[in-house]
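User: My collaborator sent over this chain with a note saying "see what the structure looks like." That's all I know about it. Can you take a look?
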Amino acid sequence: MSTWITKLNQLLGLSTGSEPAPTPFAGTSTKLTYPVLLAGGERKIVQVIDSELNLVTPPVVNTASYSGLQIVDANGGHYMVTECIPVETGGSRSRLHLKLTLLRRVDLDQTKRILKDIIKAPDSFWSRDTACAISTVEGFRSLEGLMAACRNSASWAYRRTEVQMRTSSAL
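Assistant: Without extra context I'll predict from the sequence alone. Here is the result:
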């Protein structure tokens, strides 16, 4: 194809079959309602994120840690991260483009089940004593309350130990 026809096609937005795919933008492929609950992934995390900017600007870009990551948004949308693409934005920290697939809508009990499956995983942070973490998750009566507790999910592994230590020191 001659050069002037290629340029004309580009100006008109017609495909020549040889132009590169569009560059992904920093953000998510689907609009989420914040806060969102991140659950699972390679490191079996439970974390709450308050904005898209915080979601796509991690302290360290490790795309593998997003593999298998589930997201539950404030409206009960249950998503899976299907692809994580680093995007250069010219700033000091790289950002990500997260391709998301809506799996289903979930209610409080289904969200608790997602969390309990992560807690029970043999390589999870809570695997040494899952009972305390599971009872903490079971105790919530609203998605908002559960998300608020997930901001400090690491403490779920220690509450039982602290109570046991106080009890044994009082004897």
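A starting point for your reply to your collaborator: The chain has one domain: 23-163.
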